[in-house]
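A sample copied in:

***
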Amino acid sequence: MIRDLIYNPPTDPLLQLLYEDADVLVFSKPTGLLTVPGKTPDLADCLEARVKAAYPEALLVHRLDMETSGVCIFALSKLAQKGLGRQFEKRKIEVAYVAWVWGVVTADGGEIAQPLIADWPNRPMQKICHETGKPSQTSWRVLERKKNSTKVELKP
């Protein structure tokens, strides 16, 4: 897969705080912005760097892929980071994605259960592998249908 070699992250707004309390910061992450810095200097601009410029004590709790928009949580202490991380790990925090897919999905919902593993040449893509993949399960439901596309909610 050939990828665009120019990283041009969105800057308006530069940083959007959605929630703040004594332990947690919640920010909106737009599509096209890395959550953490890439391996080269041209990939240094990311949500984590922007947050740390405003809140030096902030600690990232989880990531979203560059092309995924959504909500990112930062902790304001190691204790809060550990507690939130444990909640993600034990699936106490519910995660949902909304996606537009090509074509009209005829069923109203369902479940997909397949073993997944990173597709290293095409990261961050995943692939099904019955030998080395980790078990995964995603429930989905149709939210809206258009002529050539379907909006679905996905819950891993």
Remarks:
- The longest strand covers residues 137-145.
- The mean pLDDT is 94.
- The radius of gyration is 18 Å.
- Strands lie at 16-20, 24-29, 59-60, 70-75, 97-102, 109-113, 116-118, 126-128, 137-145, 149-155.
